[in-house]
Amino acid sequence: MAGAIYSVAELNMIITMFGCLCATIQASTGFYASVIHKKTFLLRSNPVLNRAHRTFGNFSTVFFLLGLFAGSSGFLGALIGLDGSPPLEFNDISFNIHFWGSFPIAIMILTKLVLSYFWKKKVFKYGKILGTATFIAWAYTWITSGISYYLRTIPPNLQHEPPLLLFSIELLWLQLIWPFLLGGLISIPILLTGSKIEKLKEKKSKV
Question: DSSP letter string over 111-145?
């Protein structure tokens, strides 16, 4: 039974990591279009940027909903005293930073999700602000949950066994930057291809 609980804890971390990775790729395409080129409409007109931005944005949303379900289930289980649920540690700094910060982040991301599907024009109007806020929210979620998780794999607050698939606690710094690093590397060919398409468009327009 305990092994299953530990596996779920690490699985939740992996879900959060992939969500942050996808959010990083989405943010890189948004940054490329709106900041570097100062043309947010490239996310609609450029087929490569458009597909990457929407696809990885959808993936990050799915991962967030999975993590939200797991977190909400654990929270409700702790409230009713369900066996195997993580404790509510309101006297712990890492718990409080991650726990209380999760509420405004959930509201922000769910609001963006609703706007994306039902009020698309508002998303385009406030895209730069919403995109930046979403990336910051993901970064906050991943870093605070990562620190909170790893601190609970060592004494005195030993709740989980050491990770099997994630990096060991000695490489915590690398684990925390890993989704940003990998997301940035994956973004490179996407941005290069998108840039080539824009250069071809410019050449054709000059002919």
Answer: HHHHHHHH-HHHHHHTHHHHHHHHHHHHHHHHHHH
Phi-psi region of 35 (alpha: psi -120 to 50; beta: other; left: phi over 0): alpha
Note the pLDDT tens digit of each residue in 28-69: 999 999 888 888 888 889 999 999 999 999 999 999 999 988
- Looking up tokens 């979620």 gives 141
Q: For residue 17, count other CB atoms closer than 10 A to its CB.
A: 21
- Given a contact cutoff of 8 angstroms between Cβ atoms, the answer to whether 106 and 68 are in contact is yes
How far apart (Å, rounded) are the C-alpha atoms in residues 90 and 151?
15
119: left (phi over 0), alpha (psi -120 to 50) or beta: beta
Closest CA to 137 of 27, 43, 33, 34: 27
Domain count, the chain: 1
Q: What is the distance of C-alpha 183 from the center of its chain?
A: 11
